[in-house]
Design goal:
Blueprint (H helix, E strand, L loop, with lengths): L2 E7 L2 E7 L8 E7 L2 E13 L8 E7 L20 H14 L9 E11 L6 H15 L9 E8 L2 E4 L3 H6 L2 E7 L4 E11 L1 H29 L13 H10 L2 H8 L4 H18 L4 H5 L1 H18 L16 E5 L7 E7 L2 E10 L5 E2 L9 E2 L1 E6 L16 H14 L12 E10 L4 H15 L9 E9 L6 E5 L3 H6 L2 E7 L4 E8 L6 H26 L13 E6 L5 H5 L4 H10 L2 E4 L4 E6 L2 H15 L7 E10 L2 E7 L2 E6 L20 E9 L5 E4 L14
Parallel strand pairs: 5-6, 16-17, 27-29
Antiparallel strand pairs: 1-2, 2-3, 3-4, 4-6, 7-8, 7-9, 9-10, 10-21, 11-12, 12-13, 13-17, 14-15, 18-19, 18-20, 20-21, 22-24, 23-24, 25-26, 25-28, 26-27, 28-29
EC number: 2.7.7.8
Family: Belongs to the polyribonucleotide nucleotidyltransferase family.
GO molecular function: polyribonucleotide nucleotidyltransferase activity
Length: about 700
Amino acid sequence: MFKSFSMELAGRTLTVEIGKVCAQANGAAFMRYGDTTVLSTATASEKPREGIDFFPLSVEFEEKMYAVGKIPGGFNKREGKASENAVLTSRVIDRPMRPLFPKDYRNDVTLNNMVMSVDPECRPEIVAMLGAAIATTISDIPFDGPCAMTQMGMIDGEFIVNPSQKQWDEGDLKLTVASTSQKVIMIEAGANEIPEDKMIEAIYKCHEVNQTLIAFINQIVAEVGKPKHEYTSCAIPEEMFAVIKELVPPEEMEEAVFTDEKQVREENINKITERLEEAFAENEEWLAILGEAIYQYEKKTVRKMILKDHKRPDGRAINEIRPLSAEVDLIPRVHGSAMFKRGQTQICDVVTLAPLSEVQKIDGLDENITEKRYMHQYNFPSYSVGETKVSRGPGRREIGHGALAERALIPVLPSVDEFPYAIRAVSETFESNGSTSMASTCASCMSLMAAGVPIKKMVAGISCGLVTGETDDDYLVLTDIQGLEDFFGDMDFKVTGTHDGITAIQMDIKIHGLTRPIVEEAIRRTREARLYIMDEVMSKAIAEPRKEVNVYAPKIEQIVIDPSKIGDVVGQKGKTINEIIDRTGVKIDINDDGAVSICGTDKAKIEEAIDMVKIITTDFEEGQILTGKVVSIKEFGAFLEFAPGKEGMVHISKIAKERINHVEDVLTLGDVVTVICLGKDKMGRISFSIKDVPADAGKSANA
C-alpha cells in the first residue's frame, strides 16, 4: 500500500514515500528533501547469528556519483570503496540508533542509505539520517524509536536549521544532534571556538526541531507501521548469575577490578574465568556463554562501585584526571613530533609539511570541497592493547577518530596565505586505555607547534563518562574515563577546544538519552579539564609554535604575480615552468589568483627560482640591471637569456667600450654577463647594453 507524507522543515518540504519501492525490505522510506533524494532501507535476518556476544548492526551511506551528474574516476568508472565522508556519515547514523535496539538482540540488521540525487540546498546526510530512523521505526524490527536528527549551522552568530551545503561549509558551526521524544541521544560537532553556553543553546534548538520530526514520524508509524517481530533473546539466565555469585562473591569481584593497572585487572579476571570454567565443565550451555556472563558481572560490579560507593577502579576522584606527561621532538629528522600520555593511553603524533601540490584530492558529492589541505590520520595497532592481529588498514573507528582530531584543530590552523603548506598529522597509538582520540588531539597540537606551523591557539581534548541509576536524577559524571569505565559506563562525551571555546564534540551513549543537566555538567567538566591540560602540561612541553619550520622540512616562499602573466610562467605545454624546476630543483604551485608558491630545501635555489619568476612576469624597464647567459650569437649582436622564456639582445655596438669587429671577439656561448636595459630603440624594441653598466651594478643585478 503506497502512502506519501510531507511536512515543512526549515523552509523546505520533506516528503516520505512508503510502499512505493523495496517492498521486500523489512522497512523502506523513499525520502525527498528539496531535490535531494535518498532511498533508506532496514533489513534483518530471520534468525540470530550464532556464537556472538554483540548486536551485528551495519549502517551504509552509499554515495552515487550520478546524484551530482558525475561519472566516477579511475579505470572501472564505478563506485568503489566508501569515501571518508560516507564512513563518517554511517557512524553518525549508527551511534544514536544502536542503543535503541534490544541489548539481547543478535539478528543481523543492515540500514542502507543510497543517495540518488543531491540538491545543494538540502544536504543528503541529514536526509539519510532521517530515512534510516523512519525505515527502522516503521519496520517489524524491534526498535525503541522513533528518533530524529537535526543539523545546525551558524553564520554571523545566527543559527541556521539544516543549512545548505554552502552554509555548512562556510559557517562557524557544524552540529548534528539526535533525540528521542524525551532526551538527546547523540551529539557531533565541529565549531570555530563556540562558547560553551552558545553550544548548549544550539544543541537544544536542535532537540526542539527533533520533537516536530518525531511527531511526524509517529504519524507515519500510526498509518503504515508494522508490528515488531518476536526474537530469540540472548540474555544470560538469572540462575546462572546466582551460581556465579556463589562461587565468586561480589567483594572478590570488586577486589579483582579495583586496580589502575589494566594488565593486573585482566589477569585477575582470567583467574576467575578459569575457576568458573572448571565449575561449569559439565554444563555446555552455560560454558558457551560464560564469557558474556563474566562481562555482565564485572560491568554490574564496576557500575555499583562508581554510582553507589563513588569509587573508581583506579582509585581516582570523580573529577580527577589520570597522570599526564608531554614531550616534543622525540623522533629525529621528521618535520615535527610530540607524545602525549594520560595514564595508560599514549599517543605519538608526527607532522609532515609539503607544498600545496600535495593536498588531498576529494571526489565526492560536495562540489564545494575538492581538496583537503590538512589531513589528520589515526592508527590503532593491536599491540596498543596487548593483542595480536594482522593490520589491514584503517577501519571505521580509526577513520572516525582521525576525523575528530582533524576537526578539533582546523579552526586554529593558519590560512594558506599565512602558511602555504599542505599539512599531514599522523597519530600512532602506542598504548590505549581510554580516549585515545582526545590524547591524539593534544599530541597533534604540540606536534604542529614543534613543526613550526603557526597555529593561532593551543587545543586540547578530554572525555567524560557517565554511570546512571534507576531515575534521571541518579547519575554520576566521570572526568577522563579509562577503558573499563568506557566499556561499562553509559557515555563517552568528548570535547575539544581552546581557552576561548569549543572546536569539536563527539558524544556516544549506550542508554536511551541524556537529560540537560548531564549535558551541561559534561561540557563544564571538559572545559575545566582541557584548560588544566593546556596550562599545566602541554604548555610546559611547548608553549607556542616555533618561529621557523624544522630544518628537514621544505621551505616555501610565496609571491604574487599578475594573473594574466601565469601563462608566461607556465610556458607552452609547461616548458618554461619545467625549465625553472629542472634548473633549481624546486617545486612550484600557481593558483588562479596569481599566488606562486616555491618550495625547496635549499634557500639559495628558492631565491633563484623567485628571481626567474619575477623576471618572466615583469616588463623590462629602462635602467634595470640584469644578469643573463649568452644563448645565441649573430653578426649583429648576442642574445641573452635572463630566465627561461625571457630573452633580450645586446647589439654589437653595445658590447664593449672600444669598437669590435666580431661579437665572438668578446663573447662566447654560455658566458654570463651583466647588462643594463636601455629602454626601447627607434624600432620600438627593448635593447640592452654591456658597456653602459655602472661599475657598482653587480650587486643589484636581477634584483
